[in-house]
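Protocol step 4 of 5: obtain the predicted structure for the target chain.
Materials: sequence only (see below). No template structures provided, no constraints applied. The aim of this step is simply to have a reference model before the mutagenesis design in step 5. Sequence pasted as it appears in the construct record:
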Amino acid sequence: MIQQRFVQMASRGQQKPQAQQQATELASSLMSGLRADRQSIFGSDLLRTFILIALGMALIALYLKGKYKQQMILLGGLLVLSSFDLLAVGRRYFNEESL
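Step 4 output (structure tokens):
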């Protein structure tokens, strides 16, 4: 649907087959590029999420088993993990130029 709308906008209502073909090729190229970018972002986010969940679960398991007694160690570790996640995602949206 998006691709069809893009073809309509790119061809600007022209009925020439050449314009339609160019618009279709451009739309296909853009859509495949967007899919590849989104798959790459999804894959990296998924891996980071699994690692953060595993580290968080390890911190909680160690606390529950009594390996360390202070709650501050648990809270500090979880704070570091969540801060890392926020900074990693934020860095994608805010780069040096936007600050």
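Step 4 remarks: The CA atoms of residues 90 and 96 lie 11 Å apart. DSSP finds three helices and no strands in the chain.
Proceed to step 5.
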